[in-house]
Amino acid sequence: MAKQIPDIVIGRLPVYLRALQQMKQEGRQVTSSQELGERLGISAAQIRKDLSQFGEFGKQGTGYNIEYLANQVREILKVNRSWDVIIVGAGDIGRALAGYNGFSERGFKIRGIFDNNASLVGSKQGEFTISDSKTMKEVIQTSGIKIAMIAVPAGHAQQVADQLVEAGIRAILSYAPVNLNVPAGVRVQNIDPSIHLQRMTYYLE
Amino acid sequence: MAKQIPDIVIGRLPVYLRALQQMKQEGRQVTSSQELGERLGISAAQIRKDLSQFGEFGKQGTGYNIEYLANQVREILKVNRSWDVIIVGAGDIGRALAGYNGFSERGFKIRGIFDNNASLVGSKQGEFTISDSKTMKEVIQTSGIKIAMIAVPAGHAQQVADQLVEAGIRAILSYAPVNLNVPAGVRVQNIDPSIHLQRMTYYLE
Fold first, then answer.
1. Which residue in A46, A180, B110, B149 has the most C-beta neighbors within 10 A?
2. Which residue of B has its CA nearest to A11?
3. B22 and A178: CB-CB below 8 Å?
4. Under 8 Å CB-to-CB from A187, ≥6 apart: which residues?
5. What is the model's pTM?
6. What is the ipTM of this complex?
């Protein structure tokens, strides 16, 4: 794509996709930017503007075909295929992620869960056997894995991120409540419940 | 505050606060918008502009006093006090949230964890005893709780959200991968790992 799309627009596309998939599950076939906007608390104009960055997906007056638009957004986001993902850390969060069965329909396949705690290594976690972190690098390189989720204590997260990046990981979703430093070309997203809570308290009386 | 601050600015303040707290833990006393920006991947100009919406927190050339700025941001976000929070759903995610000890220093206190599964009710989860969801409304109203975290299956999330709002909850952090409909005046934040992963695949080769 020649033109640079603002990251904030990219960030909204997965939210649109989730709403479209939900509508499809409800048996719906057609929607509008108005309806999408009402569901998501985003203005219809914003949705039209965001989508227009990538092409023409609906006709004036007839709205969007839900399945077609969902497929187009999947293609833009490159989730019209399956990405291998590993989980580092087999505590509560890591286990919740390993057990979550919603990834496959969103474009992701969990390929392994790693921990450095010898008492956990080898034990079963749902369909997975927890692997030794020492084997992580080889698995990443052999399988060409680009995406990892970090669910280790805050104090270990940077060291794990460094190892992952060295092994070839290019996208990290971190549950550790710290800012990770990574080289250019590697993307990080953080999931930190306190950040989300603090964003809402501003508005409370 | 008379003027309306854009929500996207509010959304960055908790991220600044986390970085400031991290610097303080490192024993640092002074920082700059440049340094903060490098840590966070945000431009120094953006950080200065965001903070200037709320006042004058640093002197040209001498930077920001970390503790002072952190306290100011805490006050803006209203997390210079402790907010009571409940957790609904005692599965893997709910238990991880109940066991996470990072809330208190960020302005939150977990006051209870609820589930409608009779086989879980009454069992201990760390320092908490899992309560019956039937008692949720009374606890919320008696204690005047305004914030809840939803960690129930997707199919139950809307129903739980309706109950919470009816009981008086005004801010919901949801781990269920669905868009929740709530009345005006209630805020929702979603934590959905697929959304974050899909935002990064766009940039992968």
1. B149
2. B199
3. yes
4. A170, A171, A172, B200, B203
5. 0.87
6. 0.94
